[in-house]
Amino acid sequence: MLLLSACTSIPLSSMLKMATLDGDDISAIDPKQIRVRLSISAPVELQTKNVKLALKFDHQNGEQSEFKYLLEIIDVSVIDPLSSWFSQAPLKHAYEFKLAALSQLEFNQYQKDYVRHGKPKRYQWTVYYYLKNKPQQGEGITIDMELKFSHNEDYFFLLKNAKVDLN
Fold first, then answer.
1. How confident is the model at residue 123 (pLDDT cuts 50, 70, 90)?
2. Residue 124, SS3?
3. Cα separation, 118 vs 135, whole angstroms
4. C-beta of residue 55 within 8 angstroms of C-beta of residue 66
């Protein structure tokens, strides 16, 4: 079983971006341009099938809604290790995904639901993924989860430096 530990970081800029999204912003998203990037520390690799973007909302009226979108791999690259005086970031594999064709169509339902319910009280955007090879017992890995809504935007973090341990 994999356990996500509490050592995660969501940058303030990402929290601000998500908190300021409104119905007009959501309506303007072109589902063909949505991208998800997962970066995972080596030697562990990601399984690129059945990766999903999930959006879950608690609405002001007490209702909940959840949408899951199948992602399709479009690129795999390697991020070389970075070191500074304070720490060393490990070598990582980066996987870039887009919404699968059917999921692009289904995203329109999410846009309508968002507009119908208004800004949610709480929301959760996450990515469901599987590891191709698991870390050894006691060997932790680090995962970054990023999202962007348009080719013209930069990625923003959903999770940064999330520590995963095998238990």
1. confident
2. strand
3. 42
4. yes
- Residue 117 φ then ψ, to 5°: -90, -20
Radius of gyration of the chain (CA): 17
Token digits of residue 130 = 């599987």
Closest C-alpha among 133, 136, 140 to residue 161: 140
Report the distance separating Cα 89 and Cα 15, nearest Å. 23
pTM of the full structure? 0.81
Q: Tens digit of pLDDT for each residue in 82-92?
A: 665 565 667 88
List the structure tokens of 162.
Answer: 């999330």
* Both tokens assigned to 73: 């791999």
Rounded Cα distance between 149 and 157, Å, is 12
148 near 156, Cβ under 8 Å?
yes
What are 125-147's pLDDT values in tens digits? 888 888 887 777 767 788 889 99
State the virtual CA torsion across 25, 28, 31, 37 in degrees, nearest 10. -40
Report residue 113 as tokens. Answer: 């639901």
